[in-house]
Design goal:
Strands 1, 11, 12, 13, 14, 15, 16 and 17 form an eight-stranded mixed beta sheet that branches. The protein contains eleven helices and 17 strands. It folds into two domains: about 120 residues, Lyase, Ornithine Decarboxylase, Chain A, domain 1, CATH 2.40.37.10; about 250 residues, Alanine racemase (TIM Barrel, Alpha-Beta Barrel). About 30% of the residues lie in helices and about 25% in strands. The structure holds ligand LLP. Ligand LLP binds next to strand 10 and helix 10.
């Protein structure tokens, strides 16, 4: 249980808003994820876009995870936090020349490439630097992930990856690029996926595509099936179903490729350990609802405003009878709202509010809109 009375009292001594990380939950999550993956011979890269807080990153690196980066800055940051270049991959639909140079200079494991144009640019830069660039092809498997539309990535209508009908041409072009070393194939179908069926469909597609490559004399040594495992935002204390998730892959992927499988997990590793802690500034009557105005808003946690995402909200300091409130932030935008007509114990100015399951895509997506300060962070090990 994250918020005992004792912890709440300690949190009261710090200026809100800030992120609070329960490091025991993080370590428990990492222990289970790494055990379930390694017992099946799988490798996991942490997708640091979910949370690049150095304390969180260093802890994840200690558990032996690799890093999945999407910018040159992320690559440098991952290495500074203890991840190894040989366990670092670089994905993204728009890598700049400078970022490609960073990846080559630091000797990363692999570039996940998304187009012929990108392959040609990487080849050119590698030639100029006298390097060979290890490359995996990111293939769009055209699989519906049944998640929120905004974070689906593996279907034909979005910008990510190489479409299957283009593969023949990509392989032909690649065979003429002498500074590219083909390492493998990469897939990612979306994020916050809670129905495991799309992953079964992905396995079928991966088996077919693997055979397609070997038929052409190309042996993918790296088969990266991406990330996306969802969490239960209604039950912040429940950890993600790592065992069932990895089981889908050990059951449905062909035996011959199982030892080459890697994953890129972000949210499932860090979401549960983090909460956004905020104070109630004002309680305000509207025409048809009572507003609780917090000192945290979309600048600290963007997900509700951007995706209508749900996060459980708790009042840590009131035990009064429950009432219905609309919980909003201080930012000058109507969408700066965390939840409408939600049940909270009667709430007053000065109460402490926890917005749960915010350890992924929370602090990482904070902004300085309205010239607000970025949120700080506190850790259960050191409060
Ligand atoms: N690999 C690739 C290529 C990705 O694009 C992503 C996430 C991941 C791995 C990690 O996915 P995860 O395991 O975290 O689901 N800001 C959104 C989520 C965007 C996800 C972007 N890509 C949110 O707050 O829900």
């Amino acid at each position: 249980m994250t918020f005992t009375k004792e912890i709440t009292n300690r949190l009261r001594n710090h200026r809100t808003p800030f992120y609070y990380y329960d490091m025991d939950i993080l370590r428990e999550t990492l222990t289970i994820a790494s055990r379930e993956a390694s017992s099946r011979g799988f490798t996991v890269h942490y997708a640091l876009k979910a949370n690049f807080n150095p304390v969180i990153m260093k802890t994840i690196a200690e558990y032996g995870f690799g890093a999945d980066c999407v910018s040159g800055n992320e690559i440098e940051h991952a290495l500074n936090c203890g991840f190894q270049p040989g366990d670092t991959v670089f994905a993204g639909v728009g890598k700049s020349d400078q970022e490609i140079e960073t990846g080559l200079r630091l000797g990363i494991k692999c570039f996940n490439c998304e187009s012929i144009a990108e392959l040609k640019v990487i080849d050119e830069i590698a030639a100029r630097m006298g390097k060979k660039a290890p490359v995996a092809l990111r293939i769009n498997p055209n699989i519906e992930a049944h998640t929120i539309r905004h974070i689906t990535t593996g279907t034909d209508e979005n910008k990510f990856g190489i479409r299957i009908p283009e593969l023949e041409e990509v392989v032909t072009v690649m065979s003429g690029l002498h500074n590219i070393v083909f390492r493998g194939i990469h897939f990612h179908i979306g994020s916050q996926i809670t129905d495991l069926n799309p992953y079964r469909n992905l396995c079928t597609r991966v088996n077919e595509i693997y055979d397609w490559f070997t038929d052409r004399g190309l042996e993918p040594e790296v088969i990266n099936v991406g990330g996306g495992l969802g969490i239960n935002y209604n039950e912040p204390e429940t950890l993600p179903p790592f065992e069932q998730y990895f089981n889908v892959f050990s059951t449905h992927l062909d035996r011959k490729i199982r030892s080459s499988i890697s994953f890129e997990l972000g949210r499932s590793l860090t979401a549960s350990c983090g909460s956004l802690i905020s104070s109630v500034l004002f309680v305000k009557e509207g025409a048809s609802e009572t507003f609780v105005i917090l000192d945290a808003g979309m600048t600290e946690l963007l997900r509700p405003a951007l995706y209508h995402a749900f996060h459980l909200i708790e009042n840590l300091t009131s035990e009064l009878p429950v009432k219905k409130y609309t919980v909003a932030g201080p930012v000058c935008e109507t969408t700066d709202t965390f939840g409408k007509f939600i049940s909270l114990p009667e709430t007053q100015r000065g109460d402490i509010i926890a917005i749960r399951s915010a350890g992924a895509y929370g602090e990482a997506m904070a902004s300085r809109y309205n010239l607000r300060s970025l949120p700080g962070s506190l850790y259960s090990d050191s409060i």
